[in-house]
Amino acid sequence: MHLAAHFPGVNATTVWADPRSRSQIDFSSFVHLARTAERGKFDFFFLAEGLRLREHNGRIHDLDVVGRPESLTVLSALAAVTERLGLAATVNATFNEPYELARRLATLDHLSEGRAAWNVVTSSDAFTGENFRRGGYLDRADRYTRAAEFVATARELWDSWTPDGDSRPFAHDGEQFTISGEFTVPRSPQGHPVVIQAGDSGEGREFAASAADIIFTRHGTLEAGRAFYADVKARLAAYGREPDDLKIMPGVTVVVGDTDAEAQEQAYEIRRQQVSPQNAILAAEQLWGRDLSAYDPDGPLPEVDPVVDSGLVKGRVLHGDPFAVVARWRAISEAKGLSLRQTVIETTTRQSFIGSPRTVAAELTAFVDERAADGFILVPHLTPGGLDDFVDRVVPLLQESGAFRSEYSGSTLRSHLGLAEPVWKG
Fold first, then answer.
1. Structural domains in the chain?
2. Are 312 and 289 in contact (CB under 8 A)?
3. Per-residue pLDDT at 206
4. What is the mean pLDDT of residues 7-26?
5. Is the overall model pTM greater than 0.70, yes or no?
6. Which residue positions form the known binding site for FMN?
7. Alpha-carbon span 208 to 321, nearest angstrom
8. SS3 for the chain, per residue?
């Protein structure tokens, strides 16, 4: 299996109130998690992106992280303190340009001697676009059109240098970009940085099948994972690709205890920390699109209907139809006798893998064996020590069983992932 480490950031997973939690912007935090992942022989270290501080009811959301450094800068520094670990940056294809981003990624690939990766994300969000001169003009239907041409253009730039080190002029004339000139960075050690895509929509799956090396998903159950895996892998043939050309890696959380029972107790306490009374009201307001500050988080669910596109919460993505989600929450609350806060805990924060080291290792292995995933991107609940237990207690069992590498066999990220170097297209 393949394993990656996600640096905790702006999400409901991170427990900032834990006394062991440290800074999300201090370089030592990045170093700790990256070195832990490399000690565990992980494939890569993954940074998310946030281009604007989230707002709630017209104010900066004070339960969020308010600082998030630029990913490629952090990873360039980490290249100097790691040796084999892949370095993956999330960079938006909507608010960047191919020439400059291709140059920055190629530079990271050289600095790290072939360990760079780009997680391609898109945005049609005018709220985020307000931080950029052209604003959020991009129609949602066009975001993957731009992203696909962006990736193709970046690859043209990377291929404008031959494997022998000769530079050739480039010229691209498309619907999204018209550029020409000479690229300033020689062909990198991997040929191209690894491309990651995060998305679950039909458009996102098709984009991944056509252009990505890894797809980052959010399917945590075996059944959902198998369905997603089969669907995406079946799309590859249309682009002349083999099933192993695209690695499917869901983001997962893990709680490890001495026994399964102890791990369950720890998981319950973590969920309570993740969903404070304030966070429970926030989650409900995001879903209902209403000010619910008058409601008791330990009382029943609001009896009112949701308001669609109210603009109360900005910078967060709501998955699914709010009326359907509210109906599901109400059914769960009524069936189990849960308060609002308990319902939020039940529906939004369930850990993916909980148990003793041996239980967790067996369940991870089963996911891969049953074709629900090719590996996992671990999202710890603590910064920066949230991976320590997993690396110290679970990884040795995976290595012992032969499910995971004991040593790196190559030096580039492509070699870790079993991906061939791209054929040069001169």
1. 2-257+351-417 (3.20.20.30), 276-348 (no CATH)
2. yes
3. 92
4. 83
5. yes
6. 90, 144, 201
7. 25
8. CEEEEECCCCCCCCCCCCCCCCCCCCHHHHHHHHHHHHHCCCCEEEECCCCCCCEECCEECCCCCCCCCCHHHHHHHHCCCCCCCEEEEEEECCCCCHHHHHHHHHHHHHHCCCCEEEEEECCCCHHHHCCCCCCCCCCHHHHHHHHHHHHHHHHHHHCCECCCCCECCEEEECCCCEEEECCCCCCECCECCEEEEECCCHHHHHHHHHHCCEEEECCCCHHHHHHHHHHHHHHHHHHCCCHHHCEEEEEECEEECCCHHHHHHHHHHHHHHHCCHHHHHHHHHHHHCCCCCCCCCCCCCCCCCCCCCCCCEECCCCCCCHHHHHHHHHHHHHHHCCCHHHHHHHHHCCCCEEECHHHHHHHHHHHHHCCCCCEEEECCCCCCCCCHHHHHHHHHHHHHHCCCCCCCCCCCHHHHHCCCCCCCCC
Across the chain, mean pLDDT equals 90
Q: Residue 388 — very low, low, confident or very high, per pLDDT cuts 50/70/90?
A: very high
